[in-house]
Every structure is written in structure tokens, then in C-alpha cells.
Amino acid sequence: MTPTPAPAPSAVPSLASLAVHAGREDLTDLGVHTMPIDLSTTNPLPSIEAGRDAYDAFAAGERPAPGMTSVYRRAWNPTVARFETAIAALEAHDPGGVVHEAEGIAFATGMAAMTAVLLSRVAAGLPHVLAVRPLYGGTDALLASGLVGTEVDYVDAHEVAAAVTDRTGLVVMESPCNPTLDLRDIADVVRQAGTVPVLVDNTFATPVLQRPLTLGAGYVLHSATKYIGGHGDAMGGVVVTSPARAKELRPIRTITGGVLDPWSAYLLHRGLATLPVRVLAQQATAADLAAWLVGRAGVARVFYPGLPGADPQGLIGRQMAGPGAMVAFELAGGFASAERVCAALSLITHAVSLGGVDTLIEHPAALTHRVVAEEAQPGAGVLRVSVGLESAADLQADLDRALSHA
User: Fold this and answer.
1) Which residue among 3, 165, 187, 220 is least enclosed by CB atoms within 10 Å?
2) What proportion of the chain, given as a percentage, has pLDDT over 70?
3) pTM assigned to the model
4) Is there a catalytic annotation at residue 55?
5) 74 is a catalytic site residue
6) Catalytic choice (74, 247, 301, 340)
């Protein structure tokens, strides 16, 4: 019997393989299997001249050349750099073989990452920002505050082209949107924006389900605290963008000090290895939970892109690989019912944040979106659920008991 030949290796590794191996390419040469953690805050200098040259390079936003001294953790750290390399590889992944040049810049939080991008556009003399709501409450509030010199106009996704001016430096959007999971056509917004870069907050979708760089986005941002880390024990943010724009962001990070610490970088990088497995499992449970919520007594509306009629533009399958693991629903009884449901849950944790292995529920209007203008707040009866890795049956039973109190 003639043995079946092994399939030829793909020229483009799968996202699952990249998630496990990206950023670890030098480990064999180092003689280690687990990623090392460099906790140094300062580095020995071989000479004054070497230190001076390194400072100049970091001030210009350069990545370290081989053999260049690190100088100081606020400028560069090898553990952080490994995570940056890995997340950039995932966001730039294109099964069709198209090369998207990208670099990652990691920050202490997602809001530090957003602040750095805004500062870079203001520094370029382009302070006008178009914001497509809904947005994460912290992003919305930062834009509206003008704290970093931005001038913001809030627009619908179809209004971007008409709102662009010669002072517009950035379009900010999300898809799926926080908290009601509205989908926005990223490629269409990019088309409308023309030469103005579009920043897409990809926290909800992750590179497992959506890669905005391949759709023309200029910046992709993550609160890495969420799905990237996945376990609720590490905080960070990251921007993936072109090498030229990355060069603009690095000095801002160094000057403002919003740097990611090495231990958190290690945990976030470790989280990438299981990201595809976690997201796909959570998505499957979220789809079951959303379908189960439809028609439940006291539930006025369920927000989930995978429900019938929830994706009129046909973006799932074209822009997103799936509807994701976030679900929101609105209670007919408003705030009072929402409060009773949250208090009655036992398996599901009443807490902000999202993307972890355990299921969380929160009231956006009172918490994550409390800081935004009243017209942009979600309804008083809306609850947002980040579906974890528990069984769908157990989550449904917990919610069923809680809904009986609504």
C-alpha cells in the first residue's frame, strides 16, 4: 500500500500557529524554551559613546539595532519587544499571502495607547478627530475632554467623508461597538476617510476574528487587559501600525512614561498562545446564550451580531470571521430590573472589564459609559455580558434564576 504523502507546508502559517510561536523565534538560539523575563530597569553601558548613540536612536523612535545597548527600561525592554512582535504578527496575518508591514507598540494600558496616538496626530498639526459612536466610554470621554489638544466631531459611519477637513488627523471607531455590539464597515470608513488614518479598537474582536490592517486601517488598538491576556491578571494596551507611524509613537511613549512592565508583557504574550482556542470556545457559548435570551420573560431586546437580522451589511464572513463572545441585552424593567439581576447572579461575576476566562456582567450606563455624554449612553436597562469558558447550560441556569428576580 502506497503511503499518502504529507501535505506540503503552507507558505503562510495559520493564525493558530502564529499565536503559539510569534515573538519566540530567538528562544532556540538562547537555549531556552520558556520566554525569559528581563526585569532590569537600567542597563550597563559599554561606553559613553554607545549610551549616547542609543539615546539618540530611541529619541528618534528607532527600534534597537543588533548589539545596541538597551540603556533604560522606559526606552526599550526585550520582554516587551517580544510581545510587540507577536501581536503585530497576528494583526498583520493575511492567509492570502499579502504582506502588511506592521509593528507593535505596547503601553501600560489601553488608554495610554489611545492617548499616545492622539498626541501623535496633534503633534503633526492635525488635531481634528472624527469619532464614530458607540465607543468605549473612556475613549469617548478622552476625546470630548480636549485634554490632549484634540477637536472632536461625533459622526455616524456613513457621515465620515462629509466631515473630513484639512485639519482632520484621525478617525476613531470600533466594530463590534461597545456595549451593544453594533457592526461598522471598516473598509467603507477607510474609503471615506481617504488619506486620513483610521484607528480601529479591535479589543472585542481580537485578531482571531478580525484584522483591520488588512482592511486598510492605519492603527489597530487593543486593551490587552481583555482577551489578549485573557485571565484578568495583567493590564496593558497595544497599538499595531505601520513602521513609520510606530516610529512616531515610540518617543511619545518614552516621554510620557506610559510603558508596559516586563512581567505584564510576559503574561500578555503567554495569553496569545491560547487566544484562538479561548475566543472560539467563548464565541460558541455566546451564540448559544444569545439565542437562549431571545424571548425570555423580562428581556426586551438581545444585542448579538450572530442573531438573525443583526448583521444587515453581511459583515460576518466578510469582515469578521464570527460574531464574537460579547452579548448584551436590555431588560423591560429598566435600571431597577438590571440591578436585581446583577445582585441575584452567583456563577456570573458582576464586574467591569471583559475577555477573561470567567463570565462577567456589568451595567454600562452606570459604569463603563457613565462618563460619556447623556445622548451617547446606553439604555438604563442594558446589561453587557463577557462570556467566559463555563458551560452554556450553567450560565443559562444562573441567568434564569436571576431573571426571575427582574
Assistant:
1) 3
2) 97
3) 0.95
4) no
5) yes
6) 74
